[in-house]
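Troubleshooting: if your tokenizer reports a length mismatch, compare your output against this known-good record of 233 residues.
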Amino acid sequence: MQSQMSNNKKKNSLVLIHIATPFIILAMCVGILLIVSIKPSDKLKVYKNLVFMDELKLNPDDEAIGLKIKDNTIIDDYKGTTSDKGEFIRPVFGEMYAIIKSDSFDLSVPVYWGSDIELFERGACQATGSVIVGDEGNTVISAHEDTFFSQLSELKKGDTLTVSTNYGEFTYTVRELISFKKDNNKYVNPSKDTRLTLYTCKKDVLGSSDERIGVICDLTEKKFYVTEEASNE
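Known-good structure output:
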């Protein structure tokens, strides 16, 4: 009789173990996921309003490994001869090659070629899948909404922006105010017309937003810098 009771206890124990095991494994998995998902507050701040345009990069994902940042001095008070035709100077990944200014508000933003976390902390970033400033097509530039593009939402139709580079100065006029989801590439894809597309995250007090806001601008004036060598030809 005692042997039978002992066997029954063992069977009951085995049943309980089989029942409890999945729940124990589930609890462990949940605990691991919670630990992995916890990030320091400074990291959350960096990623909070990051503009997602890496998919537009022509460079491979490892391009930014060993990133070399080049902070150029951009010409913004050129007094020499200009022309509506000229040569472009193509930047390299991580290079600051332009400055955006607007009389509509206090905006003077450095523009870096390529998208990278460190570059977004220094200024606006241009998708390398878009055309350089002044060229034919869609020039796509974005920045954090709480830093360099904090006043972007204040732009109105008809406002002008000046983009200075070391090969020329280009004036753009706001044509359209835009709003789109972060996974909608409608406004950031290549275009047949020549335009400047600026965008950032929409402000959200609860955290990162999936909504993007910005402007589309038409190129209304080109001023390529004419060097002495070119003027003597």
